[in-house]
Amino acid sequence: MLAVMRRDLLLAMRRKTEVLTALFFFVIVTSLFPLGIGPEPALLRKIAPGVLWVGALLATMLGLQRMFAADHADGTLEQMVLSPTPLGLLVAGKNAAHWLLSGLPLVVLAPLLGMQFDLDAEALGVLILGLLLGTPVLSLVGSIGAALTLGVRGGGVLLSLLVLPLYIPTLIFGAGAVQAHISGQGAGGHLSLLAALLALAVFFAPWATTAALRIALE
Amino acid sequence: MSNGIVNWFKLASPYSFYPVAGKMQPWFWALAVLFGAAGLWISFFVAPTDATQGEGYRIIFVHVPASWMSMFIYLVMATWAGIGLALNTRLSGMMAQALAPTGALMAFLSLWTGAFWGKPMWGTWWVWDARLTSELILFFLYLGFIALQAAIDDPRRADKAGAILALVGVVNVPIIYFSVKWWNTLHQGSSVSLTKAPSMAQTMLWGMLLMALCFWMYSIAMTLKRVRTIILERESHTEWARKLAEVGA
Amino acid sequence: MNWGSPAEFFAMGGYALYVWGSFGVCAVAMLLEPILLGRRRRAILRSLRRHAIADRMDKESS
Lengths: 218, 249, 62
Fold this sequence. Notes:
Chain A has 218 residues and is mainly α.
């Protein structure tokens, strides 16, 4: 599993542009909202959690196709399916690499963007924690969609249609955590629910992904 | 007893199911019409006017049945898809494919009638009520399933991929509903519940039940009709399909 | 009976647009769906007929 992870990371480092593009997308999209809505700080503070989370969702989705497409094209994926290592572990490795490349950078960037929306330090902390818990879920669940749409016509857009409804609970709890903190109710409940989602995803998503991969490759 | 088991498995082939579905269809259409007539009668002529919502509440006689069916059909669809995945039977996959469009239609009708109910009651065409929002997400799940199957050319792969999606969806539906409910109660102090129907008079319950049965029979009839068409499309290379009476060659 | 006259029935106590808008769309949908499916069925039957005729001609000529 670590080997797969390392390989994915190495390959991505050689083609940094894809990773960076998704990050710039995150920055641009979140900047669009104040431009579209207006600069009043009070309003921005209100919409910040939602905007930042939606931006994170969309940016993650951009990178999902990358997870399996390249390996599928050059036959490496078939080798992985045939190898003695359980496919679930290999998938977990790929998911981890994807998260390191797209989820973790979002977690790092988010507080900077959050300051654009005038969020205070504690709120930013909740945002970071939420993204830390939520972005792996996005990678795990997204990989199911990526495996299902492997090599399918209109893959990218179809992938979004399939995966966005499944992302909604993560969005609700993640953005909700920040909002709950701001309104004084405390983010604990939301963050625990996010943690629960993460646990569920870690256990069940690789199953679905491996099943989908086998179907895509047969 | 063994005869019974053998017969069921024979039915699992598209070839044997096709005529059976054809014979069952008219019965379900008839039942749909019967329940519909009875349900409409009660909805309009027996159920009394509501004290708070006036005549507008009568929309529940189509809104609630459509919602129930949209959720029920998704469950049935996921079940058939799961069976197809587990037992590798073609007909199960065809059944799932046949159910999806009718389920999506029910979800759409639920949203439409929900909006038409909400406008006079709450003043806006859309209310981010927990149930309506979950229904919207269910509609997206249906569309995703249909889109995925439409995009994959190989029918067997389409069946199996759709099955995984449907099963993942079914697991997610309670999670989504719970999260939306949570989201809704946090953002609206007073629970704006669109489906807080007037305290049910007996007649209102009967009306809803009969209309629900009507929608159910309709869905079964539509699904049987559609699965027959799907069978023909997928088996178009076989002799038995080309030799059918209705082909008339 | 709830209605004094047909006019009252259609007016639905002022909610006519919403009630008939709802029931109407449901009725239209539940009529259109079978009709559209009927068209799809006729299309596949036509295609099968062409295949069957082609098969027969193949057999006759061989």
